[in-house]
Specification:
Length: 297
């Protein structure tokens, strides 16, 4: 009886360590793939029409710059395109995450502004009366505003930490996989009846699913993160969407693990029932053989 109890304690310890390793591995991987990676950032930017929002915000700031110059807002017509925003924003994010400097593509914007300003001056009979240096100064102010807005806030600050985190993943994930495999192997070797081994695997899956689901689910229901008041609005929308995507990833993976654990537990129970039937059938045959021997004797 004590040996059986000791075996269960040892198996439970291995299952507990396996669960903690699974939780650590899944949390670190999901945090990177759903929140910090280049792919997740770009995917979420596309999901919330970020480029259209940032274009509208940029034009509003440029219109403010144009007020004291006397130039009309129409000089920005056909200059700032979604394609240009997409290229520059995505390029800046990728370069920043990789630790390199990104050169914004502003040649087409500069040429378009110059062309539109000269066309306006010519239509007003002012062409040649305004010094080129004044025009260049206005264009530089517009481009400076454009570039500062196109840069995703906070990214340059946390890029180094994201790089360190990415390097840590190369050690955390393999280490967790080794621990998980070792604990599963030990439970497999210790348990004479393999349905018990599957039962401990079911415990680990369900426990892992609950641990990575409960807190994100509470945060999701609470919804306090949605009330973050960052400015401008498109940044606030993006941050809230990023958090939302991360919470969804935890909840979905957690639910899948719980379902997997339940299925493994069901298969384990089916295996136990089959084993019991086989044992009973075997003993019935033995009893028949013994009874026949007694009658013959």
């Amino acid at each position: 009886m004590n040996k059986k109890k000791d075996t269960r304690i040892i198996c439970s310890i291995f299952a507990f360590v396996q669960t903690l390793s699974m939780v650590l591995m899944i949390m670190t991987v999901l945090l990177y793939t759903s929140f910090l990676s280049y792919g997740s950032i770009i995917r979420n930017l596309n999901s919330i029409n970020y480029y259209e929002d940032i274009k509208e915000y940029t034009l509003e700031r440029i219109y403010d710059i144009l007020i004291p110059t006397g130039l009309p807002n129409s000089i920005t017509d056909d200059v700032f395109t979604l394609e240009t925003y997409t290229f520059n924003v995505n390029g800046y994010i990728e370069s920043t995450l990789n630790g390199t400097v990104f050169e914004f593509e502003t040649t087409e914007i500069r040429d378009g502004l110059t062309r539109n300003i000269n066309a306006f001056l010519e239509s007003e009979g002012l062409y040649g009366y305004v010094e080129q240096s004044v025009i260049d100064e206005v264009i530089e102010a517009i481009l400076e505003s454009y570039i500062s807005i196109a840069k995703l806030p906070f990214l340059s600050t946390i890029a180094d930490y994201i790089g360190i985190y990415r390097q840590l993943l190369n050690y955390i994930v393999p280490a967790c996989l080794v621990i998980i495999a070792f604990c599963a192997y030990m439970n497999f070797q210790i348990n004479k009846w393999k349905h018990r081994f599957y039962r401990y695997q079911a415990y680990s899956c369900v426990a892992t699913g609950l641990m990575i689901t409960i807190i994100p689910l509470i945060i999701k229901v609470w919804g306090g993160y949605a009330r973050i008041a960052l400015q401008p609005d498109y940044i606030n929308h993006f941050i809230v969407y990023q958090i939302n995507a991360l919470l969804h990833a935890f909840i979905i993976v957690g639910i899948l693990l719980i379902i997997s654990g339940v299925l493994i537990a069901w298969l384990s129970e089916k295996g136990r029932e089959t084993l019991i039937k086989e044992i009973k059938s075997k003993y019935k045959k033995v009893d028949k053989v013994d009874n026949t021997s007694i009658v013959e004797s």
